[in-house]
Design goal:
The chain is α+β, with helices and mostly antiparallel strands. The protein contains ten helices and seven strands. The relative contact order is 0.10.
């Protein structure tokens, strides 16, 4: 990365922090937010890497800005176009995804759930001006997907064709009835990032899946920082022999 790009990212980070520091001065905050939108939001560094690895300011920024800015920030931070994001989520048209910038989103529970899981935030962060800090998983049921066993999940991973890329969500049965493991899985050319969204749950179920995956893939375990204050998701990166996975900025491997 060149020195000019590095400087641009630092300026962008400082601008975001400045919004946080003036959050109680509505006039100043709005002025700074408009400037941020015009200068940075749709630029080459919309993902704002320094912000996304600074949990305190990451949380403050996305909960301080207006809903429309928050939606745009989350979308541009993925690095995907609307068309690419629609393809990853399994939509034939990008129009439904592009409507995240309108209030129509609240009328599509499945898409709302998909985007909340994709962005690692509670659904109300995508529909309300104010953000509840409570971590929830109930929206996984709005996906209307079948609950599957751990063995069925592992078989689905094994059946993935090398070269495929997608983001999918799973509800896994556990050894306890009506208790489930909620997963966000990102595939990059046949390699996987498996992320646990459970609010609470059995450590044994997580460890059991982790142990089984390690027998088939080269695995790195760690935590992923989310925009929600204090919330980090356990995650496992699973790479096939000779494969590679481009880790998200928020991933922190265990020491």
């Amino acid at each position: 990365m060149g020195s000019e790009a590095w400087l641009e990212m630092m300026v962008m980070y400082s601008a975001a922090v400045n919004i946080c520091r003036h959050k109680n001065d509505i006039g100043k905050k709005n002025e700074l937010e408009v400037n941020y939108i015009n200068r940075f939001l749709q630029g080459d560094y919309a993902c704002n890497p320094f912000l996304r690895i600074s949990p305190k300011y990451y949380n403050e920024f996305v909960t301080t800005v207006r809903l429309r800015t928050r939606l745009e920030f989350f979308h541009f931070s993925t690095g995907y176009t609307y068309r690419e994001l629609a393809d990853l989520l399994g939509y034939h048209s990008h129009a439904s995804v592009q409507n995240i910038l309108s209030k129509d989103l609240i009328n599509t529970p499945k898409l709302l759930a998909q985007l909340a899981i994709l962005y690692r935030v509670p659904p109300n962060w995508l529909t309300n001006e104010s953000c509840s800090e409570e971590w929830v998983v109930y929206h996984f049921f709005d996906l209307k997907i079948n609950k599957i066993s751990k063995k069925e999940f592992e078989d689905l991973l094994e059946q993935t064709i090398f070269g495929e890329s997608w983001i999918r969500f799973y509800i896994i049965n556990t050894t306890i009835p009506d208790i489930f493991t909620f997963l966000r899985v990102e595939c990059q050319k046949g390699n996987f990032l498996i992320e646990f969204f459970n609010k609470t749950g059995s450590v044994e179920d997580v460890l059991d899946l982790s142990y089984s995956l390690r027998s088939k893939y080269n695995c790195v375990e760690g935590l992923i920082i989310t925009p929600v204050h204090g919330r980090k998701n356990r995650a496992i990166v699973c790479v096939r022999k000779g494969g590679f996975f481009c880790l998200p900025l928020e991933f922190r491997p265990y020491n």
